[in-house]
């Protein structure tokens, strides 16, 4: 009986899992050419006259154009061919297509690249414009224009229209840039010359270069009876050279005028031509974006996070797996990177970039956080909602017929041909290339998770290895979902049918725009949907991805929404239409004729939270760095430590009752302080004493109990050798008038390179003691330096670290510390955080500091921490903590099972201290550095890994010998999220990440403050770091941000377009002080940046209460509630705010005194 029961259950499980497998069919089904009738294959082969050595874009492939050429409601297909004729396929319905190339008159010769469809002569029929390149004979690369004559017949008319351009065209995009109603043309170009494309040369920006794009203005019909285009590039400001591979037209700054994004290959920077609304453009990419892709290829623009702002994705060629990453010619030395910046280039890195539009004229590049940064040799990105859930997913095509980046091939071919004459060398190189493998990998399709990140949709059926280039989408069978078409090299084109409607899961709507007489497809129109508290925005543009055109029918997935509350369209001339209560599941025609004058907006303009006032009050400081780099001697360090500042401390220096500001200087440069006057203006003074050292943490405190603020400056950086006297800290006594005198004998010998300094009466003897964090042992990264607990003995300080906590002495590479009573027992405890460290909680037990991190519940917090701040964020009467970490927008993914590790010691047996990062890729622990970087630091490994192929296959265990690996120190990072630590009482804590926007970059500055008067504390954060090695890249995606707290420990981002904050650079310290008239001033300092100072645009009804020297904590009480508040001498990152407590009107403050 039991056996029968087991068998019965077994068969039920078989049926269950069998059904599950059957129901989980892929979203896309690849249709065969027999099913579709599409047999186009972009076949190419090298010849003596045309090959990769003659034309460097020989393997870039062709494009796809989708559009309804015969107005039957079905999207037709056009494929561009390089060495074969382009082809046009008529959509017959039901995914059946007919090749009408010959009878339509659109067969081509020459090297065809991009496809752009538009109704250029405004006759209601879609025309086809084909870009050409390749040949050195101008006539053979003149672009083609096929004018649609109706009845599926076309006439080539490029010369007559002024569009037979003979530059090396990649793609065209049509737009009404001057708002005169007709369509103009932007021609994206590249170059054919053998100019060294990656050598640093001055940028040619005056239109003199052959590889400068062109803007052609539509001059109207005139006597010709059809439009004629005129080159107006020079007068319009289109003048900067590039190797253009992608172009997108979109209103990126929200002013109602089309802007132009150009993705440029190689060293040439991308361009963002902002429309000046007067017929001219200005490249403002450096203002809008912090960095770009290096080998930029295709580009697409869409609002992927549904916030109403258009985002930008650009593709590059970073592989996903370790082998391909290590075998390819990639990366940039720090020296070349610095030189590139000096020559005026913008920062760029070899990876895909995803530029999130913050809505305030600035973008945050978050491709690594979003999980779309590495998709190999990629070409066409396409944002589209493929599963109708209301969010844009992301398709990426990739592949390359020959892997020209294989380092072993490059090295071997150079050695083989170096003594040959040019013709003989080229012949030999072409012969060698016959056996060179290609990059044949599957295309990628990422599902939008709705939290700014994507997940690869591995079960959606896009998994065929290929050499894919141009791609496009349309609802080819009019069933309410988007199908995909891909142009392949040496393989038949892919046609993917979307099977979503079989699932019947989500709703949709499609829109067909009928524009005015000269812009029939409504290019530039913007559609906004509101439904169920959600919003979607789409701007009508057809030229997307790589060398391709998408169908002009606009498609929205709506998720579970059966109806749309409001559908609004803004036509290019500003006229509007608004429809209410629109049903889903239909294709709706919107006609420009039905539009009215601009309608009033639903939303009122937002008043910014903060206003910048630095110039108004005399705080006109700009930080200067000495720009010494560690990388010249320590190649494998992940970042330099010579640019840690500036630090800041606020307090009443001169005793006039007003808050002043002290700012640390770089090594060899003076510190600066500003004294606030009765007028509210600040007067600048330079502090030139002992300026040879690097100022790290700064503290203003009354060390000798004489009623004025003395000055402590911790010495840090990496400019000097270990043990240098320039690392000795400095202490200065105040004479009560703001004049400081160095107390030479006040400090013990302390020659570690340090970070923070913070004070508290931890031994309860009535004066302020110090903790000073050690940051670095120069030349021995990541060895833990010495940290110090200094007892105050009447204004002199004694090192008692060994006595109070031997463990604390070498706790790690400390970046921040906080004296705080974390268990509410009345004794001041210590929290310490740093690089490759756990957040360490030390409990004060009768003057001893005991590490209780594990029992506190924080044992699994090893990260790269920058800063700590304390505040009662959940209004429960104890102190919670906010900590700045490296963030998640980095190359590294870490967990307890797969940590990022830094090994250090005698790694190659040479007796020299070395370090090396490692990370897990696809379950194996690989070294982070490239083979060249590793051998530069450890020359002995050059013989072991003579071939790049060998190194590309090597794990850490293969690189380092078992004996040396066993002896090496290994520090692990498992948790990189900036976080909120909730105090659960009784010495127990829980940690959780801050919102995803706080993970865009390292968080440095932290202030907890009620910004909106709701008696709940909010957060102000600043961050970024320009210190990382060039192979990692700058962490620069953060702009100063506000997170609104709900009084329960939860946070949401305040709209960046309305917070008013800048803090856009390499932001470091962040402090609060009070103005002469009682207003809060927030000061943010950045490395090599201007000081920014903000005040509330609409001041809150609060007062600031001065504190006594030993006041450490109190309670704010209002309406039967109360919140604990601690008063710190130093918190955040190298920051000390003025010691005042903000008390809202209607609240009272009760100081805890012992």
Automatic annotation (TrEMBL):
Query: Mind listing the UniProt keywords for this protein, alphabetically?
Result: Signal
Query: Which Pfam families does its entry note?
Result: FG-GAP_3 (PF13517), UnbV_ASPIC (PF07593)
Tell me where in this chain the ASPIC/UnbV domain is found: 522-588
Q: InterPro entries of this UniProt entry?
A: Crtac1, FG-GAP, Integrin_alpha_N, UnbV_ASPIC
The reply to whether Lipid metabolism figures as a keyword in the UniProt entry is: no
In Swiss-Prot or TrEMBL terms, this protein is called RNA-binding protein
Q: Which organism is it from?
A: Dyadobacter sediminis
- Lineage from the top down? Bacteria, Pseudomonadati, Bacteroidota, Cytophagia, Cytophagales
């Amino acid at each position: 009986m039991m056996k029968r029961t087991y068998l019965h259950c077994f068969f039920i499980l078989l049926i269950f899992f069998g059904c599950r497998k059957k129901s989980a069919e892929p979203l896309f089904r690849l249709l065969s050419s027999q099913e579709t009738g599409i047999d186009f294959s972009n076949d190419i082969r090298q010849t003596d006259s045309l090959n990769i050595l003659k034309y460097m874009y020989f393997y870039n492939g062709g494009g796809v154009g989708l559009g309804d050429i015969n107005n039957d409601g079905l999207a037709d297909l056009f494929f561009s061919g390089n060495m074969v004729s382009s082809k046009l396929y008529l959509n017959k319905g039901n995914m059946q297509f007919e090749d009408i190339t010959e009878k339509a008159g659109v067969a081509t010769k020459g090297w065809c690249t991009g496809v752009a469809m538009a109704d250029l002569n405004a006759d209601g029929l879609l025309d086809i414009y084909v870009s050409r390149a390749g040949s050195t004979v101008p006539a053979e690369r003149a672009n083609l224009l096929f004018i649609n004559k109706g009845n599926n017949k076309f006439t080539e008319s490029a010369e007559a229209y002024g569009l037979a351009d003979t530059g090396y065209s990649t793609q065209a995009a049509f737009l009404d840039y001057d708002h005169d109603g007709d369509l103009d043309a932007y021609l994206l170009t590249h170059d054919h010359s053998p100019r060294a494309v990656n050598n640093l040369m001055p940028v040619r920006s005056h239109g003199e270069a052959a590889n400068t794009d062109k803007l052609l203005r539509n001059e109207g019909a005139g006597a010709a009876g059809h439009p004629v285009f005129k080159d107006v590039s020079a007068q319009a400001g289109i003048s900067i050279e590039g190797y253009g591979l992608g172009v997108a037209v979109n209103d990126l700054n929200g002013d109602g005028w089309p802007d132009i994004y150009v993705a440029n290959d190689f060293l040439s920077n991308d361009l963002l031509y902002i429309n000046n609304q007067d017929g001219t453009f200005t490249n403002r990419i450096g203002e809008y974006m912090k960095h770009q892709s290096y080998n930029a290829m295709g580009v697409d623009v869409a609002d992927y996070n549904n916030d109403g702002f258009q985002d930008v994705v650009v593709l590059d060629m970073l592989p996903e797996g370790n082998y391909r990453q290590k075998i390819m010619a990639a990366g940039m030395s720090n020296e070349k990177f610095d030189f590139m910046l000096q020559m005026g280039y913008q920062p760029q890195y070899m990876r895909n970039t995803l530029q999130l539009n913050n809505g305030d004229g600035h973008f945050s590049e978050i491709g690594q956080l979003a999980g779309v940064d590495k998709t190999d040799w990629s070409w066409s990105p396409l944002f589209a909602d493929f599963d109708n859930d209301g969010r844009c997913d992301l398709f990426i095509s990739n592949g390359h017929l020959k892997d020209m980046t294989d380092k072993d091939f490059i090295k071997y071919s150079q050695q083989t041909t170096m003594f040959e004459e040019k013709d003989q060398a080229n012949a030999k190189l072409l012969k060698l290339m016959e056996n060179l493998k290609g990059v044949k990998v599957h295309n990628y399709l990422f599902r939008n998770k709705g939290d700014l990140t994507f997940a690869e949709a591995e079960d959606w059926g896009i998994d065929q290895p290929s050499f894919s280039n141009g791609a496009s989408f349309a609802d080819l069978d009019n069933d309410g979902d988007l199908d995909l078409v891909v142009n392949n090299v040496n393989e038949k084109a892919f046609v993917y049918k979307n099977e979503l409607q079989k699932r019947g899961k989500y709703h949709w709507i499609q829109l067909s725009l009928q524009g005015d007489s000269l812009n029939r497809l409504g290019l530039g129109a913007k559609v906004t949907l509101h439904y169920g508290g959600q919003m979607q925005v789409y701007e009508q543009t057809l030229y997307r991805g790589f060398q391709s055109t998408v169908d002009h029918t606009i498609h929205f997935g709506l998720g579970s929404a059966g109806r749309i509350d409001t559908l609004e369209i803004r036509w290019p001339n500003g006229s509007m239409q608004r429809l209410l209560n629109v049903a889903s599941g239909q294709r709706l025609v919107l006609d420009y004729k039905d539009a009215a004058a601009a309608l009033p907006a639903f939303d009122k303009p937002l008043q910014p939270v903060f206003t910048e006032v630095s110039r108004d009050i005399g705080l006109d400081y700009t930080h200067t760095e000495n720009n010494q780099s560690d990388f010249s001697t320590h190649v494998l360090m992940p970042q330099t430590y010579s640019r840690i500042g500036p630090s800041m401390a606020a307090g009443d220096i001169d005793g006039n009752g007003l808050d002043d500001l002290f700012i640390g200087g770089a090594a060899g440069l003076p510190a600066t302080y500003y004294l606030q006057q009765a007028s509210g203006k600040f007067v600048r003074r330079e502090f030139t004493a002992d300026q040879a050292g690097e100022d790290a943490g700064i503290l203003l405190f009354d060390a000798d109990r004489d009623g004025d603020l003395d000055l402590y400056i911790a010495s840090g950086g990496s400019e000097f050798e270990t043990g240098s006297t320039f690392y000795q800290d400095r202490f200065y006594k105040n004479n009560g008038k703001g004049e400081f005198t160095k107390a030479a004998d006040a400090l013990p010998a302390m020659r570690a390179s340090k970070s923070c300094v913070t004070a508290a009466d931890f031994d309860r003897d009535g004066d302020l003691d110090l903790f000073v964090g050690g940051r670095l042992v120069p030349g021995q990264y990541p060895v833990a330096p010495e940290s110090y607990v200094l007892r105050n003995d009447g204004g002199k300080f004694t090192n008692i670290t060994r006595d109070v906590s031997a463990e604390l002495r070498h706790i790690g590479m400390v970046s921040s510390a906080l004296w705080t009573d974390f268990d509410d027992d009345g004794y001041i405890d210590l929290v310490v955080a740093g690089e490759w460290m756990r957040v360490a909680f030390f409990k004060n037990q009768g003057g001893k500091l005991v590490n209780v991190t594990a029992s506190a519940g924080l044992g699994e917090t090893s990260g790269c921490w920058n800063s700590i701040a304390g505040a009662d964020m959940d209004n429960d009467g104890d102190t919670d903590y906010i900590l700045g970490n490296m963030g998640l927008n980095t190359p590294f993914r870490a967990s307890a099972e797969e940590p990022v590790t830094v090994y250090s010691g005698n790694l190659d047996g040479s007796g020299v201290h070395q370090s090396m990062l490692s990370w897990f890729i696809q379950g194996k622990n690989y070294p982070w550095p490239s083979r060249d970087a590793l051998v530069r630091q450890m020359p002995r490994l050059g013989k072991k890994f003579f071939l790049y192929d060998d190194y590309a296959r090597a794990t850490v265990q293969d690189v380092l010998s078992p004996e040396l690996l066993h002896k090496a120190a290994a520090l692990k990072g498992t948790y990189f999220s900036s976080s909120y630590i909730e105090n659960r009482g009784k010495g127990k804590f829980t940690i959780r990440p801050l919102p995803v926007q706080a993970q865009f970059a390292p968080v440095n500055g932290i202030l907890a403050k009620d910004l909106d008067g709701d008696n709940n504390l909010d957060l102000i954060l600043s961050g970024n770091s320009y210190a990382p090695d060039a192979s990692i890249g700058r962490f620069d995606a953060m702009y100063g941000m506000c997170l609104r707290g709900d009084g329960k420990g939860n946070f949401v981002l305040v709209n960046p377009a309305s917070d008013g904050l800048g803090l856009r650079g390499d932001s470091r310290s962040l402090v609060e002080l009070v103005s002469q008239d009682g207003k809060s001033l927030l000061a943010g300092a950045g490395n090599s940046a201007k000081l920014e100072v903000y005040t509330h645009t609409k001041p809150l009804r609060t007062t600031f209460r001065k504190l006594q020297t030993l006041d450490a904590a109190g309670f704010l009480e209002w309406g039967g509630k109360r919140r604990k508040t601690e008063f710190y001498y130093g918190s955040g990152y190298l920051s000390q705010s003025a010691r005042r407590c903000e008390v809202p009107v209607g609240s009272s403050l009760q100081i805890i005194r012992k």
